[in-house]
Amino acid sequence: MKYHQLIKSIIALALLGAGSTIFTGCEGPPDMGNSSAALADDVASQVYVPPGEYDEFYAFMSGGFSGQVSVYGLPSGRMLKVIPVFSLDAEKGYGFNEETKPLLETSHGFIPWDDAHHPELSQTDGETDGRWLFINGNNTPRIARIDLTTFETAEIIEIPNSGGNHSSPFTTENTEYVVAGTRFGVPYPQQDVSIDSYAEKFKGTLSFISVDPEEGHMDVAFQVLLPAFNYDLAHSGKGKSHGWTFFTTYNTEEKSTLLEVNASQNDKDFIAAINWKKAEEYIKQGKYREMPAKYAHNIYNEKTHTATSEMKDKVKVLIPEECPGLVYFLPTPKSPHGVDVDPSGEYIVGNGKLSADMAVHSFTKIQEAIANESFETTIDGVPVLKYEEILAGIVEKPGLGPLHTEFDGKGNAYTTYFISSEIVKWDIETQQVLDRIPTYYSVGHLMIPGGDSRKPDGKYMVALNKITKDRYLPTGPELNHSAQLYDISGDKMKLLLDFPTIGEPHYAQAIAADKVMPNSKKFYPIEENEHPYRTVREKDARVEREGKDVHIYMTSIRSHFAPDNIEGIKVGDRVYFHLTNLEQDWDVPHGLAVLGAQNAELLVMPGQTETLVWEPKAEGVYPFYCTDFCSALHQEMQGYLRVSPANSQVALDWRLGYDEPVQ
Amino acid sequence: MKQLPRRLMLLGIVCLMSLFVFPMWQIILYAPQYPDGVEMHIYIDKIGGSSPGTLQNVNILNHYVGMQYIEPDDIPELQYFPYIIGAMGLLGLIALAINKKWGYLSWTIVLVVLGILGMYDFYLWEYDYGHNLSDTAPIKIPGASFQPPLIGRKQIINFIADSWPHIGGIGFGLSMFFGSAAWWSRKKQLSK
User: Fold this and answer.
1) Which fold has domain A526-655?
2) Which key words are in the record (chain B) (predicted)?
3) How many CB pairs under 8 A join A and B?
């Protein structure tokens, strides 16, 4: 290039730059409709719940990487509670006190964190019944059950032969089962093999976890062994499709590296349709293989206020080649994310996230194709149905990046579009688009109360957004995720409210308050307390030494601990504070914190017993106190524990008040 | 209508016996932070409440201002009240059997006297609990009285206290009514 040509080019570029600067300077950024001016006038009154009045719905939002569930009221968006599930919660002593530690046991040992994605309410006759909330742990595959009388985690079961329990828990119509699917293909059985042996050595399992109808206790009833596709999401059939569960897949290419490219090559992936009633028959006929497995099953007992962990060692496995009619693959474009079944059970929506159009399958047509044995091919014993034959229709170019669909019970479907950051309302029967509304920003799941059940409550819709950027006052680089509440009672969707959430709410569920509220417990009756270290009367409070273990049978009542002066503890002891809260009134928890405790506080509900372990490292006198402002004399609710040298002769002694002796 | 006095007397006895099933009195404390109220029930033989923890909750409230613990075992009336009521039931049956005017009248008069004595006794207990405060009370409010009303409503510091007969107490009142009605109808019969 000659010198003057270079000069010319530079000048041309400079002019171009200046020109475009002036051009954009004149135009300014376009109006993206982000401002509140887009709101209708009367929205405030629609979400205003006056002080002292109750919300219409409980909403349960997953905490994602917080591992917890947060409970919100709708339509106010007020946060009611955070329920610790898969992650330690120092606030409540969850996973720190001796009673809840077993809940977090797995075959890999104690795991203090997980990634909680999809809350799912229990159902009876396809309707949410307000008994339990299930939620999956994604990272170390687990399912938890939360009891909605106490709003506490009551049970956690680990899922064997799985990696990334994403397509879970998604209940069946009468909570016969909650399901689990492996997002990651894993070697089956787990072993040291080359990652390049993916296609031959790796497998995918879909698990059905039975739920006891009385107690809610879970058990891995059976697993279905399938090719190592990535099983992404699920929903169970309802009404006419009751007895079936549908799982989406991606990576039917069965690749293990650079998946964003390599798992996005097939034009169509599959929805795996499992006939679980058929599976029950095969189990009854003994057509399963019992495979070794190692997984933990942890149950919290409300009477002993203590969780126990049991390790299981086998699981029943069904193999499609041996069980005809058990599984079918429904071709679905392209890398479908959510699979959603409409309230009638007829329409199965495959949210093909990389597809321009969205496929809706017909359950009737699927049944006809199966009856006619009209199969395209068979993969590992699983018949693949013909796409055109099972299609009910296509939603044409509704938006970009469809992820999830919910229903309003009035014939409409609502689908989230991550890339175009919007929700599109469409008619289930005609697949015609009816309305669209933006989300702020990049919506993942959406939730309508009962929106994945047979009886949706089509009044409100919540968008669960991944990105907030400028929506709230900035808080440094890390920002909350957000939820947006829409009114969907009319023809047009209407934005009502926008509120921040905890962690990353993936999915959420909501239920009419009157299905849950009447059953909410106020306290635990002290006479039902069966904790082995309970102290149900203050006069039984005492301290016992067993070698190096010192057990303090402690009580709390407004406004003192008994005992509150303890001597005779020695360096090297392991001190157990077994605190029983003797209160029998609503909303009178007592906390316990001990200087130097290396775990957390206790927060003990009325009638409950919890245990804090404390290991004194040095001699001295250590204070302890109540952490929950319980009463007018809360600040006086405190005590001392004297720690003497390991070889000291100071006798074990305790007291409450000067009437009793202490050395 | 020959059996009317006896039937009235039987009703009176049944009403009196309701004391063995239902509380005779209730004291209810209201404050904003107690949306359900603290509802204490006094039976002839025990102290209970709307929840199993009521007595404990009342005692917790009382201890801030140094009131004595209400300890049912330390209240002798709760030991002998059931015998008195039982005896009155028996006397009532005797009055019914002999069907004499004076029998009904004297039974009713004894009941009225018992009722007055009972209320006086109740007042004395209330006065004692309300005024006999511990010297080491954490909270001392000069001039404040914590005595609940004998009957009716009264403000006690941050609480509104209601004191009313419960079903058993109403039954007691009705038994006096039916006793006197039995006497009246027997008198009418005899004067014919």
Assistant:
1) Immunoglobulin-like (2.60.40)
2) Membrane, Transmembrane, Transmembrane helix
3) 32
